[in-house]
Design a protein that fits this description.
By secondary structure, the chain is an alpha+beta fold. Helix content is about 20%, strand content about 35%.
């Protein structure tokens, strides 16, 4: 899968496509080389970015300060760094299989 990789420091790098204003916050399949995430938050004053970072911190079992928005502050296409993730990216993808 191309939507994630590990960098030289063993940080997890995620490529995401974000859909805001959805009913629930959840992983929703692949969108090209990115994992599509539906967010219940609206893209107003950074609320969607904050909701995304909290969602990822919870799923990867890390403190919020270990989830870094690297690219895409005002874009649907985002690159996120998870420092020292507590679990593998399969935690998001396995949600899709249920």
């Amino acid at each position: 899968m191309n939507w994630y990789r590990y960098d030289d420091a063993d940080n997890l790098v995620l490529t995401l496509h974000i859909q805001t204003g959805e009913k629930n916050t959840e992983a929703a399949g692949l969108h090209g080389d990115a994992l599509r995430i539906k967010l219940a938050a609206a893209p107003v004053k950074g609320k969607a970015n904050t909701a995304l970072l909290k969602f990822l911190a919870k799923h990867f079992d890390v403190p919020l300060n270990q989830v870094i928005l690297r690219q895409g502050d005002k874009s649907r296409h985002k690159v996120i760094i998870i420092q020292q993730p507590g679990c593998s990216p399969d935690v998001l993808y396995s949600e899709l299989q249920n």
